[in-house]
Amino acid sequence: MLSEVAKKTQVDLSVEELIAAALANQEGRLASNQALTVYTGARTGRSPKDRFIVQDEQTQHEVAWGQVNQPISPQTFETLWQRAKRYADDITTYVGYFRVGADPRYAIYVKVTTELAWHNLFTKQLFIRDNQDARWDWELLCLPNLKTDPARDGVNSDAAIILNFTQKRILICGTFYAGEMKKAMFTVLNYILPPQGVLPMHCAANVGKNGDSALFFGLSGTGKTTLSADPNRLLVGDDEHGWSQQGIFNFEGGCYAKCIDLSQSKEPMIWDAIRYGAVMENVVLDDSGTPDYHDTHFTQNTRAAYPLEHISARLPENMAGQPKAVIFLTCDLYGVLPPVAQLTPEQAAYHFLSGYTALVGSTEVGQTEAIKQTFSTCFGAPFFPRPPAVYAELLMQHLQSSGANVYLVNTGWTGGAYGHGGSRFSIPTTRAVISAILNGDIAQASFKTLPGFNLSIPEALPHVDATLLDPSLTWENKQAYQQKLEELMQSFAENFTKFNVNESIRRAGPHK
User: Which of 139, 183, 348, 444 lies at a CB distance of 3.0 to 4.6 Å from 343, suitable for a disulfide?
Assistant: First the structure.
């Protein structure tokens, strides 16, 4: 006879069973597109102030401690972990066993225990299901209804996300936002892979018909998911990858797409992927259950999680060879960066470390402004526990060995700054730029140097208005353009003072 605890532990349920459990528990409802729609309450994004890493003998000298990687003691973690285990013993929990990392040479295996059925469905769709033996070396415990107490638990609020690299445990309490689970596992790989010579990357990837792979770096909202979901290419993944001496590989088995202003005409692959089995977070439904992707009532950070199987144009093996093109996506609020520029290796290092972009529909709680400027080192600072130089050096090594070209692509504003007469580049324009990079048209273009940032920009590209290629030509007020250009140059210079790099990389930044 099963024990009471065993009866309450639902292990390795199917997608259908998890959806049924979520509906029975009133955790969400099915939308008209049959996606399970859920709401995450006050926290509609990650909680960076509530994220900690256990500081012990192993991590003390390996982690770049600070506001991003906040230390917490082993004793504090252990006390809270035991409280969480006792809490989990008294409720129904859902357990799944997954793999993270498509390349078995670098994969890790994780046991995910969740309080909510939809949270386990989320991980089933986002992680890789190839773990029939239920083996695991990492354990993730997610209990959103277990609130923490700062005075008692040594944390900052009623929620906590704690990673213990030595014990290989992750504890998430007090938050319903499922993205915390995804990014916690990403952080784990960002810690353990660099010593193996593998560069973990916050990027999307796809492959052309000739086997040519491309990487798309960028923060949320810059276009990684949209631009990598290309009907003419096969998707590898939309967010997290590793780059080894053998090639690139996806960390995940699914996609986590932003839904804000989602359009069937502009993003058909994502639109069609949101169906039965998918999870929509904080998407507003009308009375008939139809999603309104333009409604930001709950948050700008509306999301949909779905498995890669929902994308027909995908690479089934989830791995590819060495990339031919590396694309840094940035969303420039100043309207002074070009839609595309080819970078030298030194400029690539400079812009990789800078990670300049805008927070568009922020993925973090506490951001009251819809859009604001940010510099996010390695295009994903919140997820990288080691010092930035570790990742930058790996990038340079892989660029040199692969011979890949690097491009800076601005998906932000042109013709004026955000809120001051500028307009954002259209998705068709950006797609034309990406096509020129990937099909080799850009290699045939004539280039000129853009003063200030000293970027090499093409003078003409197929299907792109030539005026748009030079941002100085899109502004009516040339004095205003120069002012905004100098403002952004100053912001870059001030941000870069925190990096200790050789002079050739520092000189690759903007200067008069």
Answer: 348
